[in-house]
């Protein structure tokens, strides 16, 4: 439940980049403390006053940073969304790939904070109001991705941009859950695994670009084989395997 003492609105203050980064780090630090308190005491049993006290800030400072107790647990998402917007503000040769790279950036940030992210995941699964807030956060990533594509690829059908953004977000979230809930560290996906899956998504949505890259690939990266229709499948497989192995040497 939202804290009833929280103000309805917080004035928007435009900060210079350095101050904005410092503010974001401060917000994430408070959020990490809040998550630890939620884990120890329970979400409902933890008050904003307790969070502010543990973080060493006043209640007024807390409410300048967060609208409510519900907001504090997702503070790092706000920072990541700002980083994505900054990333998209730069020029990118391939906007489709830029969206994939932005999703990988988010994944890597969560991997760096895996311990606290795992605690939050458990809290979210146990608390309905946090599940609702998480759904809202996911939609913000999708909207940020699709808005960027629609802005930079005006010839692309807006529906395609929306579908691509949804596919990238869903793929990211699937791999993120696998990482968070992995029992065996050896089987835990990493950023490279996510990148492979996202490139597959990109290939489905940008077949022309994918075909062009294949055509422009160096000849040494291509194997062209011609067999008579009477050739046995096992002979075809054996010859191709032999050629591929020799090319890899």
The pLDDT mean sits at 81
Distance between the termini: 62 Å
Which class best fits the helix and strand makeup? Answer: mainly alpha
The biggest sheet amounts to: none
Number of domains: 3
Q: What is the H-and-E element order?
A: HHHHHHHHHHHH
Could you write a compact summary of the structure shown?
With 249 residues, this protein is an all-alpha fold. The protein has helices spanning 17-41, 48-55, 59-65, 69-72, 75-89, 95-112, 114-126, 128-152, 158-180, 191-205, 207-216, 233-248.
Question: Would you write up a description of this structure?
Answer:
Residues 47-66 bind DNA. InterPro entries: Homeodomain-like_sf, HTH-type_TetR-like_transc_reg, HTH_TetR. GO terms for molecular function: DNA-binding transcription factor activity; transcription cis-regulatory region binding. It comes from Cryobacterium ruanii. The protein has 249 residues and is mainly alpha-helical. The protein folds into 3 domains: 1-73, Arc Repressor Mutant, subunit A (Orthogonal Bundle); 88-213, no CATH class; 223-248. It has 12 helices and no strands. The longest helix has 25 residues, at 17-41. The N and C termini lie far apart (62 Å).
Strands, helices and their partners?
Elements: H1 17-41, H2 48-55, H3 59-65, H4 69-72, H5 75-89, H6 95-112, H7 114-126, H8 128-152, H9 158-180, H10 191-205, H11 207-216, H12 233-248
Helix pairs in contact: 1-2, 1-5, 1-7, 5-6, 5-8, 6-9, 6-10, 7-8, 8-9, 9-10
